Amino acid sequence: MPEPLVVVENLSDWKDTYPALKVVTVRDYLSGAADGMDDDLQVINLARSYRYLSVGYYTSLLAEARGHRVIPSVRTIQDLSRKAIYTLDTADLERLARKTVGRTRQDVIVNGLELMLYFGQTSSPEWQDLARQIFDAFRCPVLRVELRRQGEWRISAIQAVHPQTLNAEQQAAFAEALGVFLARRWRKPRSRTRYRYDLAILHNPDEKLPPSSRGALAQMVRAGKAVGVDVELITRRDYGRLAEYDALFIRETTSIDHYTYQFAKKAESEGMVVIDDPDSILRCTNKVYLAELLKAHRVPRPRTIIVSRDNVDELEAELGYPMVLKIPDGSFSRGVVKANNAAELKRLAGQFFKDSDLILAQEFMYTEFDWRVGILNNKPLFVCQYFMSKKHWQILKHDDKGGNAQAGGFKTWPVDEAPAKVVKTALRAAKLLGDGLYGVDLKQAGDKVVVIEVNDNPNIDNGVEDGVLGEALYRTLMAEFVRRIEMRAV
To answer: What is the end-to-end Cα distance of the chain in Å, rounded?
Structure first.
């Protein structure tokens, strides 16, 4: 087995106390210092930074291009670069961490713990199993792992650390772990499955009410792999990389004056498959447009009036009290208010007119729940009942500051057991918008079924919308992306 090659930024980074190995600088390695060495060369990349497009990043990138076995790999560097990516791989690790916490003296751990890992080794024997499994998932020479109590124990951070920052005690642990690592047979990680297509999921990990939870995103990643799609979570910072993918799935609340719309437009211009497509965002996010569209096609809806400053005084006679006022581009029950009398109507309408020249007024229909029918490619995907929040007339009750929201309960129905009229009416409404993914909200009072609105970015959360289909729901989504990608290629 050939001797490993250590790559450092400065030769002084390699301490005398470390094992005697062949050491070269990053710049020498990049300029070809390893040319002529064994094709199966083992490279330990100890650059001071693995930041994207840094010399440390390029060291691993060129090592792989040259056929060298390098630690960390480019994929590991990418996986560690954004918490939103690596947290999808930590569910099993967190379960193990919680078990280990339970076996550890509680006076040692209060609300947080930091572990240093050197080639999968740690100085705390009780944490060794977790350290090994983390290293198996993220093969990096030195890692700092932070655990925090966030209701329950979670891995809050996994960060690559440069040996130069270690103190004397930590350097000794690093040297010992390196010796153990080199004494083992260096197994090349299993080659990753080559996927037919690449799908980007745009999400915002800081969004308070995201359309898909972390668990649902993880399900999408797994379902993609099952049908030959490599799924990667991206954020707004990845706009410049969008053309690298075959398709875009927007799992962030959309709006016209928002980067989600720009992502959709960019993806469409690149010839990519995109859900939500720009036209769907444009049409669905404006309730005034939807109201007129449903009216023109005689889709049942509550009595609805498009309101300007000129006709606001006519609402009392047309709708009576209470009535519902809506800002055109509200979402998640925000921008939807109830006026119980003339004074409230004047005040609330005045507030809305500060932001929009037109608003919407609807007759008030109280029901114990709203229906939502999820529709994909003009076929029903799921059916849910969302019950009103406790002592409230909406399914979400926002606090006065617009922060936390209290939700009511839910029930997920098999499509063929849901009321046929509800599903049929939802399909009529969605077909007017296109063949994308929509969530049609409806109210039912006896035999009367009306469409409240159509969402281009409906919630898909694990344990809720997938309550009937489970994994099959996510596979259906991914299979639809595959179908559309392959249709583009014809």
So the answer is: 49
* Pair 245, 200: CB distance under 8 Å: yes
What are 301-346's pLDDT values in tens digits? 998 888 888 888 889 888 999 998 988 765 444 578 889 899 999 9
Question: Residue 409: what residue type?
Answer: G
Q: What is the pTM of this model?
A: 0.59
What digits encode the pLDDT tens for the residues 118-170?
998 988 888 888 888 888 878 899 999 888 877 777 788 888 999 889 998 99
Here the tokens at position 306 are 């498009």
The band of 26, judged by pLDDT with boundaries at 50, 70 and 90, is confident
For tokens 């179908």, name the residue.
483
Q: Decide: helix, strand or coil at residue 82.
A: coil
Give the DSSP letter string of 282-296: HHHT-HHHHHHHHHH
- Of 47, 39, 36, the C-alpha closest to 6 is 47
Compute CA distances 404 → 281, 329, 332, 334, whole Å.
25, 20, 12, 12
As its CATH architecture, domain 82-183 has: 2-Layer Sandwich (3.30)
CATH number of the domain at 197-273, out of 2.60.40.10, 3.40.50.10860, 3.40.50.2000, 3.40.50.1820? 3.40.50.10860
CATH fold for the domain made of 5-78: Oxidized Rhodanese; domain 1 (3.40.250)
* Rounded Cα gap, residues 273 and 231, in angstroms: 14
